[in-house]
Design brief:
This protein has 248 residues and is α/β, with parallel strands linked by helices. The chain contains six helices and seven strands, in the order βαβαβαβαβαβαβ.
Length: 248
Amino acid sequence: MSFHVDLQGETALVTGGSRNIGLAVGLALRSAGARVGIAARSDGKALEQAVNLLSSDGKDAMGILMNVADEEDVLDLYDRVEENLGPVSVLVNGAAVRPLQRFTELPRKDWSEVVDVILTGAFLTSRELFRRLPGERKGAIVNVGGLSAHRPARDRVHVIAAKSGLIGLTRALAEEGLGRIRVNAVVPGLIDTERRPGQSNPHPGESDGARPRGTSRDVARAVLALCDPRDVYTTGQTLHVNGGRFMP
């Protein structure tokens, strides 16, 4: 029995795909044979570099700068990916913004931005996959959650609320897609990632010999497994990849 994931003939879309976990997921999907579109909100140079890593000839991968919280951007994203790579059957919702902000000083606009990108963005991209997936095809959606939504973390009320909502969305969409689109979530633990200037770690000093930080590849392997088209039975589940820091 082979457990190799074969995504030949599939088109995958990864939001937040230009760096860190998103890029690792894109590379894993591409290694399994999928054509891969990645989306990012800013940093066109990083997006271009990511596309170069995904495909040496540029025919099996593409990158698009867009805002997942903007409905018109999402429609355009799908139009362009379909035109260049084919209908999307695999979606990984990894787009997120995660600023630290004391609750009593949290501006409404910052709350809205975080919820819009993490939760509304996943709603819009998932809805479009449901609408566009050809009737004879099966699909898979994987939402990337957050450890802070499952255990204490200060100064992240907006992020925790949005990531918690993402788990609820996962379950709701799993019910909507029964028999056609499987929907699951992967929740990374403490992962060694490159952080942009001004971004802080909400869980400082937690790495030790027993529970070192994970890597983006650890998360990507879990995401890839949930995208396996042979799996018709796993849906509505939340898979924690955290080295034992949280055991539900």
